[in-house]
Amino acid sequence: MTDQYEDFSKITNRSLKHALAESKVSLQDNDIEELMKAYDSLSTFPDVGPALEALQKKDNLYAVVFSNGTHSMVSSSVNNSPDLKPYSSVFKDIVVIEEIKKFKPAPEVYYHLARKVGKDPKNKSDMGSMWLVSGNPFDVVGARAVGMQAAWVDRAGNGWQDALVAGEHGGPTVIVKSLEEVVGAVSKNA
């Protein structure tokens, strides 16, 4: 799938329709359109606000949003979500994959991120200085595979279960139970 690309908003729309069909729920097209608009203003987990406040106080960390979504979708979310909008200035950039038309965890997307933030993807030191923060194991594995550091958010407290890749780069650099722990963990391990 990482070599197939389609606009993420179309994938999200189809995924919603699939979930509705699987749940045997029928909605009119205008109701589906309203649900898709609601995607732009989703609520966040309770730990997001305090984490972004802590990040806002750290001049030495360069935070970007990095997503499989389109720039339009992600920027709309960051700027329209009541929970995110107050912190939109924390993010120095929004980096999405639509320019290279590959999805995470393809290595090319992490190299694209590196270039967008002024790092050389061929330089191990540059890649090793970058941190990805995610609750998605596939994203952590993808970042680690190219030499990035990764903080995995384990809100459920189940521990790292993914065994897709063995060895040092098969798991996160650090595991945190909350985004509130990320700034400290990254600062400590950077």
What is the fold's blueprint, element by element?
Layout: H1 8-22, H2 29-38, H3 48-56, E1 64-67, H4 71-80, E2 93-96, H5 107-116, H6 124-128, E3 131-134, H7 137-145, E4 149-153, E5 174-176, H8 182-189
Parallel strand pairs: 1-2, 3-4, 4-5
Provide the CATH architecture: 3-Layer(aba) Sandwich
Strand content: 5-15%
Overall, the morphology is globular
Characterize the largest beta sheet: strand count, sense, and whether it forms a barrel: 3 strands, parallel
Question: What are the segments in which pLDDT stays under 50 over at least 5 consecutive residues?
Answer: none
Please, what is the CATH homologous superfamily? Answer: HAD superfamily/HAD-like
Q: Looking at CATH, which topology would you report?
A: Rossmann fold
In total, the number of domains comes to 1
Counted beta strands: 5
Order of helices and strands: HHHEHEHHEHEEH
CATH class category label:
Alpha Beta
| Rg, alpha carbons | 17 Å
Average pLDDT rating: 91
Count of alpha/pi helices = 8
Notable traits:
single chain; 190 residues; alpha/beta; Rossmann fold; three-stranded parallel sheet; two-stranded parallel sheet; 8 helices
